[in-house]
Amino acid sequence: MAATTASEAVRVTLCKSRRPLLRLDVAPFALIYALLHAYAWISLMNGTISYETLACIPVALAAHLLLFLSTRWSVRIRCWVAFRTCDHKDATHALALSSTAALCELKEEAPRGRFFSFQRRIYVQDGPTWRPHAPKTQRPLAELAQCTGLETNEQETTQRRSWGPNAFNIEDPTFSELFEEHYLAPFFVFQVFCCVLWSLDEYWVYSAFTLVMLLLFEATLCIQRLRNLEQLRSMRRPARLLYAYRQKKWRPVMSDDLLPGDVIALSSTQRRKDPIPVPCDCLLLGGSAVVSEAMLTGESVPQRKEGLIDADLTTTLDVDGGHRKHVLFGGTDLLDASRGDSTRSTPPNGGVEALVLRTGFETAQGSLMRTILFATEQVTGSTETGKFIGVLLIFAVVAALYVLQEGLKDPRRNRFKLGLHCILIITSVVPPELPMELSLAVTNSLQALGRSGIFCTEPFRIQFAGSVDVCCFDKTGTLTSDELTARGVAFSSEFIDDRANLPADTLLVLASCHAVSRGSNGLLGDSLERAQLQFAGVDRPDKVRVLKRYGFSSELRRMTCACAQGASTVVTCKGAPEALRPLLRDVPADYDALYEQHASRGMRVLALASRAVSSQMDWKSVERSTAEADLIFRGFLCLTSPLKPGTRNVIQHLQASGHKCVIITGDNVLTAAHVARSVGILGDDQTWVLTANGESPVWRSGNSVKPFAAAPSQGLCCRGDALASLSELQVAIVASRCSVFARFSPKHKEKIVDALNKRGVTTLMCGDGTNDVGALKRAHVGVSIANAPELEKRLPSTSEDVATMRKTLADAELSLSDQDPSLVRLGDASIASPFTSKRATIECVLAIVCQGRCTLVSMIQIFKILAVLCLVSAYMLSSLYLHGVKQGTEQGDAQMTVSGILTAALFFLTSRANPLETLSKKRPPRGVFEIKPILSIGLQFAAHLQALFKCLELCAPFASNEESVPDGAFAPSVLNTAIFLLTSCVQLNTFACNYVGRPFTESLREHKPMLYVLLAGYAVVFLLAAGLVPPLSDYLRLVAPPSSDFRARFLGLLLADSATVAGLSFVA
């Protein structure tokens, strides 16, 4: 076995095809068939053949068929049956195991060598291991900066063979191929097997009806999958013409023909209504660009990308880390591009030069596409489902053994029929509709979330949202608006809120230290920097000539620029006050007190600094540490950002429903604490901040200091620098007790969420940008917010607008009725998290938690209902068979058909329950194997079993007067009538009493369709029990109550069973 070196864990086992006669589904069974044939022939020659011999033949055939089907259901079983493990020299196939498994054919061709394809990725052999065949990006920047593109035809051919086209090629299966996959699925085969069993017991109508419905359902699913694949293909943007530097000249190429190693020219000067998409992941070699990464990360703020001219060329490229600011990702939109100096000739489109790093499915957009294509379809834990069916089987086996024991005592019984009924009893507790019902519950949730502008790439996480314990929020752009307003600049002696009174050095810092550019629709860049320029009165971001820009880093928490001011050169810098303090030549005495004063008022505070340097410096070789030395303090820029609409209400709602809410932010701890108090996360009591103090962190509040072990009980905050001195146990304690985590880097955020997870807490993380990606992926429920204020502006504001929108939505629903609501499209999903909200507020968290509770409750309802119905069905079948009674009519089996239709209708209506818009403090169970659901199932089954025994006792005097013929044809009887009506009443009781309703979903009274179906069902059952509907009784072949006393006692039994189960629903 060889493990790949990919970050995505994929285990590989090499194997070789067995010879046909050595396959485990050929040789053993050939021997078995030969022995059976020989024994049967010898028995016939002797004139006798035993029943056991005849029984062995269908058993062998069934085992052979089961093994054959298992090779279609399980890749591992197929590998075990038809392949054998071997070393890499003899291997013909590779068994790849990840979240799914696949048996992949090994191929060999230059220049890849030996390889196989798994989930749209190529894996190549690397010694004893296998690794993803991805372009090597971790290369020295100096080497990448000197790349000259593909210089020969041989290089182009080699790269094309190695990497293929820059496109997302999705196979186009036929309907017959998909239908074959569906009808060979385990549960479908099991359902067909059950239909065959029922038909052998002469239930033809029920079997035919069920089989037709199954075929129609699977055909519908196949058609839907074909439509989904067509929609995924339609997401691909068409190839467009651009220029690549090949063979020492600029040549026009199509974007789908780009290859790693190409140098391309990207331009935003074309007059296009839509933004220009970046065709692949590429490294900006020179100049600068502004891109929107909303397609990938949900980050609405345009990102400025810088060429390698300003980079430290001695380092190795880190695409997703420190060098992200130099990388343009495929799928993002190019908003602006400014060409820098280059040794190559100017391309025809005048665009910026970029080196192609990754193409196709290896790009960031390709990774998102693979997530959409291969997101696990598991809607609940397979372990829990397996345990659930296993427990039911125990009861079924007990019932079947009892029937077998009693049946063998009766010499009149047909042994074939006896075995058939024992199998029917066992199969009756394996609910074939379980995966369908679970899938329906999740699909309804996806549809409801989609209508709210929330999209999910990992549907199995929806149920986690129903059991969330801790909700973590980023601050800026999540709780507060990302549109900031500069209030002024603070100095030791004054606060200046008028730019006309600002010192010239401070104005220069504000006007030069930024990464804003001008686009066709105005200024492009971070909202903080736009507010900074607006306060400084700068209408043109390029008004000051920047010689070199050291971009903002979340690790360094500062940004530095070298700019020309007339004949002199000035270094300007801004950043977190703590980050700039060590860089200042002279630190004002009240430096800390001044910025803490404004931060405690909820302001975002940035320290400003600058110094004059020699105009003769060669900035291409100046290191950042040199440029940032001996800076002179120029004041604190103070900005404010208001809370987003609804933030306070959502936080209070979550807290009232028993959820702990915390803030994890990179902002100042005092600013974060002020926001926390504003929304109710922190109270008005004293705030204690955990800060670094050598090897022993301490709690500080003003001048008060407490050791770590003496932590106060409330108002706890943690600063990022304290984490380094904490043990893993201490981090877990801090994570569970603190409410505000500030000055946290992306790694720190991830560490806190991971610590909460390890304590057995279900976490939700909500953020808005790439800085939160690690924490969003670590959380059980990660929610990224796309900050798009323009979407809010499109909402209707008048009754006329609402009416118009309703009509528009109705028309849209008709036109899109054939689309799958659960299908996530590019632009809706994000690589940052499983959930992406198009709304700019945290109200989406409330919607996700509400829908999660609804889904979790629906799944537990499904498990409970199926458990009770299957157990009751097994024991009802046992009772009917032992008393020689069948369900049906002379022409068919209307009783079972009507019962099946009723069950299907009630299941469908159960899954259509809508969640409440408010959360209750009461929590739903996390799974079906908690004490309360198990107790509920057990008590309900006991009540129904007692009702069955009473029914048999009630019918005993009349059954003795009726001739019972074991395995005979159907004949109407009192017992058959009573059992059918009791079964129908049990069905209605099970759905009515296991429907949870408030406080998680709408109540039964509010769920009108289900209420009306239940009331109608009860009315029909009780009217039939009273003998008041003779025509319907005749159709169902029911007999009239034999006496008024029987009628009264039987109606009392039905009422007692209903009342008992209704009472149990309140207790358990």
TrEMBL record:
Q: Membrane topology per the record? A: Multi-pass membrane protein
Keywords tagged on the record: ATP-binding, Magnesium, Membrane, Metal-binding, Nucleotide-binding, Translocase, Transmembrane, Transmembrane helix
Organism's domain of life?
Eukaryota
* GO aspect biological process, one term: intracellular calcium ion homeostasis
Domain P-type ATPase A intervals: 245-371
Entry's Gene Ontology cellular component terms? endoplasmic reticulum membrane
A Pfam family for this UniProt protein? Hydrolase
The portions of this protein that span the membrane are 21-42, 48-69, 183-200, 206-226, 388-405, 862-882, 1009-1029, 1049-1067
Occurrences of domain P5A-ATPase transmembrane helical hairpin (ranges): 20-84
- SUPFAM superfamilies on file: Calcium ATPase, transduction domain A, Calcium ATPase, transmembrane domain M, HAD-like, Metal cation-transporting ATPase, ATP-binding domain N
> Which family does this protein fall into?
Belongs to the cation transport ATPase (P-type) (TC 3.A.3) family. Type V subfamily.
Name this protein carries in UniProt: Cation-transporting ATPase
Lineage here is: Eukaryota, Sar, Stramenopiles, Ochrophyta, Pelagophyceae
